[in-house]
Amino acid sequence: MDLILSAARLCIGMAFMLAASVTDWRTRRVPNRIWVILGISGMVLLAVQMAFAETVPDYGTAAKTYGPVHFLVFVPIAVIFLDTFWERKPVHEGGKWNLKPVALYAAAAVSCLAMVLLEGLTMEVGQLLSVPLVMCVFIMFYYLGIVRGGADAKALLALSIVFPFYPILDSLPLIGYPEGTVDMLQMTFPFTFLILMNAAILHAVVGPTIRFFRNLARGDRGFPEMFLGYRMDIADVPKSFVWPMEAVRDEEVVLILFPKRSGNVKEELAKLKKKGLDRIWVTPKDPFIIPMTAGIVFSVIVGNLVALLF
C-alpha cells in the first residue's frame, strides 16, 4: 500500500507540476485551479493512507495505525490551504474584526490541540501536524520575500499536502535513509523543504551556467552580469519576461545587478534611449516552478543530501 501511494503521489504531483511549468514558462502565471485540484488530491491520498495503510511510509521500523482523532489534522490543512484562494477581507480592518476567518483558524488551532491532548505527542501526531506547520512556514517565507512568486508559494502549499511523508519507491532514493531515521526526519526536515532546497540549488547553478555559455557564444562579456542576464534590444524588453539591469542615475548609465521588481520600466527604458543605448543588459524573470518540478525528481531519485551529511 505504501509503495502504491508513494507512486500515486509522485505521478499526480509530477503531472500537475509539469502542466504548471508549461503555463509558467509561457505566461509567468499559473491558474489557481491547478493548485486547488493538486491540494485536494493530496488530501484524498492522505485520507486513504490513514484509513487503510498499516504503516507510515518509512522502512517499516514500527507498525502504526491511525484512529479517528488523527483525522482532525484535515481541519488545519484545509483551513490554511483553502484560505490562500479565498478572496476575503482582512482579519482586522477599519476597527472591525472579520469573524469568519477568525473562527476557521480558531477551529484549526483547537483541532491541533485536541490531537495532542487526546493522543499525546506521538510519532503519528507529530508527523501529521508537521504538514500544517510546514504550510505556515511557507506562508511566512512568502511574506518575508524568501519565496517571491505567489504561484511558487501556492505550489509549495499543495506539495506539502501531496507529500506529507518521504516517498519510498522500491530501491529509491539512491541515498538510503538508515532505519528509524525517516520518522524523525519527516518532522525536522519535511520532504517539501527538501524539494525547495534542491530547486533553489538547481536554480542557482543551472541558470547562471546556461547564461554564461550563451553570452560567451554571442561575445557578450562582462562580470558578473554575464552570469545574471544577457543583452537584448531595448525595443524587445517590454514584450519579454525580463527586468532591465541598466538604468540612468544622476545622468549616468549604471549597471544594477539585482534590479527591483517594482518601478516604471517604460520610463527607465525611455531614459536609456535618450542616452543612445539600443541594447542593454537584462535579467530574466525565471519561472521557479520549473526547477521546483526538477527538484521533486531529484529529491525522489537522489534523496536528502543534508541527511547524508549529518
Structural features:
single chain, 310 residues, mainly alpha, three-stranded antiparallel β-sheet, two-stranded antiparallel sheet, 12 helices, 58% helix, 8% strand
Number of helices: 12
Q: Please, what is the average pLDDT?
A: 88
Count of individual beta strands: 7
The low-confidence parts are 55-63
Q: Strand order, biggest sheet?
A: 3-7-4
Residues in β-strands, percent: 5-15%
- The amount of helix comes to 55-70%
Instruction: Give the terminus-to-terminus CA distance.
Output: 30 Å
Plain-language structure description:
The protein has 310 residues and is mainly alpha-helical. It has a domain at 2-179. The chain is 58% helix and 8% strand. The longest helix is centred in the middle third of the chain and has 28 residues, at 191-218. The protein is globular, with a radius of gyration of 23 Å. The chain starts with a helix and ends with a helix.
Describe the secondary structure blueprint for this structure.
Layout: H1 2-27, H2 32-52, H3 74-83, E1 92-93, E2 96-97, H4 99-119, H5 123-144, H6 150-162, H7 182-188, H8 191-218, H9 225-228, E3 230-233, E4 242-244, E5 246-249, E6 252-255, H10 265-274, E7 279-284, H11 289-301, H12 305-309
Antiparallel strand pairs: 1-2, 3-7, 4-7, 5-6
